Each structure stands twice: as structure tokens, then as C-alpha cells.
Amino acid sequence: MATDDIRFNDIENCDELVLAADEAHVWRFPLDKSPIAIPALAATLDLQDQERAARLKDPAARRAFVIAHGVMRYILSIYTKVAPRTLRFGAGEFGKPFLMLDGAPQFNLAHTHARAVLAVTQKVAIGADIETLRDMPDLLRLARDHFSRTEYVHLVSLPQDARMQAFHACWTRKEAYIKALGGGVSIDLKSFDVSLEPGAPAALLSVDGHDAAAREWTLRTFRFGADHVGAVAIAQPGMRIQGLNFPPL
Ligand SMILES: CC(C)(COP(=O)(O)OP(=O)(O)OC[C@H]1O[C@@H](n2cnc3c(N)ncnc32)[C@H](O)[C@@H]1OP(=O)(O)O)[C@@H](O)C(=O)NCCC(=O)NCCS
Description:
The structure is a single chain. By secondary structure, the protein is of the alpha+beta class. It has a single domain (1-249), classed as CATH 3.90.470.20. It is built from seven helices and twelve strands. The chain has a five-stranded mixed beta sheet with strand order 1-12-2-6-5, covered by helices on one side. A three-stranded antiparallel beta sheet has the order 7-11-10. Helix 2 (47-55) runs antiparallel to helix 3. The mean pLDDT is 95. It binds coenzyme A. Residues 68, 94-97, 108-111, 127, 129, 146, 171, 174-175, 178-179, 182, 184-185, 189 line the site of coenzyme A.
């Protein structure tokens, strides 16, 4: 674990939870073992969510979808004081969901088949990503296709046994940044650089060749169990980040 990784704590009383303007909450929860009874979560989903769930033929994937979206609703209801099943979502041009509610918090969901995170701020754009750490035989090809020239050269310069961790660090940081912007595939992944050196702090280093723009962001990483890593990107410098386990105690 890097020293600046987000640390996750239990919270006892959600009623006392305060999200300051310069703070992000990053909630983590499992998808392979539901933190709340599945029928209770399923009952919070709207018609659109139910249809998406029904289209998933694999029962494990369907269950994970219900957990991810049901828990997201539970967590967002803590901040909005609106019942989970009453929350209404819209989506940006490239699909980034937002709450259709005046003064609602910003949020972003990320998941694998087994783990999820939901990152929340009061007003500032936020993005999150999580990936399963795994050996990848085509790691350098993927990096050549998706990383900037600087990132690729940096990755290749690392010893062989450091590349897998560095690759995932780079991937999740880039993905968190584009998810904060909400532009999806419209954003050129090679137009910005992130740090990837093992042990170095997570950072956005430059955007379109300028480091001033990059200094406007907060970027942090986290681990979730032994085999999951992730990152959170926030469009404001110096944001404090609190990691929280769901469900609360
Ligand atoms: C949505 C996207 C931005 C990320 O998807 P992903 O990594 O597969 O999935 P994640 O688990 O991180 O995030 C999925 C969640 O993000 C949210 N989301 C959807 N569209 C989004 C967007 N444009 N921006 C931000 N968040 C979005 C949704 O809540 C979604 O959950 P759902 O599908 O269960 O409703 C993806 O569509 C994409 O365009 N990725 C870029 C692809 C790429 O080449 N990445 C290389 C990185 S180096």
C-alpha cells in the first residue's frame, strides 16, 4: 500500500456524517456478498434499472448489478434524505449519471464483478475506477494503444516485475480522470499524463502538455482487498478524502 492510499474506516452513525465542500467520501462495498438483503435492494430500483438487470443473462452479473445500483441508492439517500427508491437519475451526453434533484451531490460509481466503490462530493466533479489486479500478457500493447507517450516510455523503463502494478495504477488513474470529466470515449487518452511509478504519489501531471491545468486536480489511489486497486479523480486541488465501508456498523 502506498502511503497516500485512501484508508477505509467503519462509520457508526450516518446521521452524523458531514460532507464538507472540500471533501470527498469514497464508499466501498462487496458485490459477491451483498451487504443488504437482495430483495430490499431490488425494491429500490426504477423501471430502467430493472430492465437493465433483466437483460443480464448471467445470474451473478444480474445480482452484482442489483447490489451495485441498490447500494448506490442507499448511500445517496444518506446525503439527499430522499428515500432510495424515489431518487431519479439523468445521464450526460456520454452516459455519466447525475441526480435529478436541486443541490444534489456529485457522485461516480465504479465496479468489477466482485467489488464496487461510490465516490461522492458536494459539488465538484468526481470520477472513480476500480480494477482487478491481474497478469496481462498484452500489457505493453495495451499501454501503447491507450497511454500517452510519456506514460508508455515510463512503463517500459520499469523492471519487468514492477510493470503489472504500474500498469494498473496508470489505467485506473486515467479512467478516474475521464470519468470525472464524463466524456467517456470522446476524451483522447493520450492527451494527458498521470504518474505511475510504484510508491510515487498519484498525480495528474499534465493536460494537453500543460502542467498548470493538471494542478487543478486531486488524484488518489486505493486498494480493496488483495486483488483490487482503484483511483479517484476530483476537479479541485487539495480535496480531503474519507474512505468509508458500507454498510455502516
Ligand atoms: C463508463 C466508462 C467511462 C467506464 O467504464 P468501465 O471502466 O467499464 O466501468 P466502471 O465500473 O469504471 O464504471 C461504470 C459506471 O460509471 C458510470 N458511468 C457511465 N458512463 C459514464 C461516463 N461517461 N462518465 C463517467 N461515469 C460513467 C455508471 O454509473 C456506470 O455504472 P453502470 O454501468 O453500472 O450504470 C467507459 O464507458 C469508457 O468509456 N471507458 C473508456 C475506455 C478506455 O479506453 N479506457 C482506457 C483507460 S487507460
